[in-house]
Design brief:
Elements (H helix, E strand, L loop, with lengths): L1 H23 L3 H35 L2 H16 L6 H6 L4 H15 L4 H12 L3 H12 L7 H23 L1
Length: 173
């Protein structure tokens, strides 16, 4: 039954949207073109922010700064009970989703998916967000330059998600 629903859900949603537009008298094609034009303009507006984030990520990973920070933080994280295998993920995940995914792949490939580092990395990847990328994307798309408390709140929630992930992993592993 779920297979049938999953196959038919997209065509059904498209039919519902088209039917709703027809009933409301909306010129669906013109609305689609207008939305595509706005999407293109938004993409152009946020491009500098995305380029800056991607360049910063590349410099951070390629300059060995990630390994240097990991070595500096290792004694503190060992004291807090954070597995050292996931330290690179903890540092890269707020910056880059694709970089975080690459680190998770490496952890799972080396330690295995059913290992403690594999559990922690998988849960962490699914329960955290790329803070700096998301802020650059959303704030850049609407032209907000003063992020006020967003960054602080995001980093606090990220820290809480790290400890919650480790607690839950230790509870069920």
């Amino acid at each position: 039954m779920i297979e049938i629903i999953s196959i038919g859900i997209v065509p059904i949603l498209i039919l519902i949207i088209l039917g709703h537009g027809y009933i409301k008298g909306v010129d669906i094609y013109a609305a689609f073109i207008e939305g595509a034009k706005e999407g293109f303009q938004t993409a152009i507006r946020i491009m500098p922010y995305l380029i800056a984030v991607f360049i910063a990520i590349g410099i951070f990973r390629d300059s060995s700064a990630l390994e240097m920070f990991t070595d500096i933080l290792r004694p503190i994280t060992n004291l807090l009970g954070i597995p050292e295998e996931v330290l690179p993920l903890i540092m890269v995940r707020p910056i880059s989703g694709s970089g975080g995914l690459g680190i998770v792949r490496d952890i799972i490939e080396y330690y295995g998916p059913d290992s403690f580092p594999g559990w922690v990395a998988s849960i962490m990847m699914g329960s955290s967000e790329t803070i700096f990328y998301t802020m650059a994307l959303y704030f850049g798309s609407v032209g907000i330059e003063d992020h006020r408390h967003t960054l602080k709140a995001s980093l606090v929630s990220y820290g809480i998600s790290i400890f919650t992930t480790i607690f839950i992993s230790r509870l069920f592993y």
